[in-house]
Amino acid sequence: MKDFSGKTAVVTGGGAGMGRALVRQLAEAGCSVAMCDISEEDMAEAKSLAEADAQQGVKISTFVADVADEDRVNAFADHVRTEHDIDHLHLLINNAGIGGGGSFVAGTRENWERTFNVCWNGVYYNARAFMPMLVAADEAHIVNVSSVNGFWASLGPDTPHTAYSAAKFAVKGFTEALITDLRLNAPHVLASVVMPGHIGTQIALNTYREFGLQSDIPGTGGQTEEDAQAQGEAFRDNAITSAEDAAKVILDGVLAERWRILIGPDAEAIDAAVRATPEEAYTGDFGTSIFAALRDAIGVEDA
To answer: Which of 25, 72, 102, 240 is most buried as measured by Cβ atoms within 10 A of its Cβ?
Structure first.
């Protein structure tokens, strides 16, 4: 895929954050986009912004869907076919996700499974729903957003992070396995796994919106609503990498046919450290030392 002009893409979680940035940049590049999200309001704003950026002839559509609900995902696929009048798809970006379900031992099963189902089943259901359309295109690409927590299952030694990490490991493994599967059975379809570090997105705010104040959600236990809202906004606004920069890295990676896309100096630093000393990845001050070195290297107060 040399460019996005005249093509059609699907972006899950397209209403805000990195998803919104992807929708806007694709539209500006001449690509029609079908987005889904649980927030109709967020999508309406994203659509308005994307249409202002879009090249002539680009179509932007929205569809309310919880990606953990297979029936809604299948309905979204039907919507894409009818709304865009197509039987094929060039680009599927599985971006939707939430946090939560921090502790498998002390947390609730409901929160754990909700987080895992959004972050893993959302990728799986959309891959199932749209794979026939990807295969029907003359060239296509599936992009699955994992995380640094897809190769380092930690937020540090004092914070359990099990559901999100387990899901992101699954996304990474699934995508890597698809590379051989697609090469043998649909060689015109490529796959990429994206592993962002701290990106300026709404994920912390969306997690709070999903679960409220509950002790097994990293960073929210014991806080007031005002504290949780402020922390979510700080996570978005003080990130090492902006959502816009992250989206550009992803789309550049697609055009370069890269199967493994790390985003941010923090992702690169954690990846290198885990590979160098995997036996130490969950001991002592492993994470603290990485972030301290990173803060010094890039000159920020809180990496």
So the answer is: 102
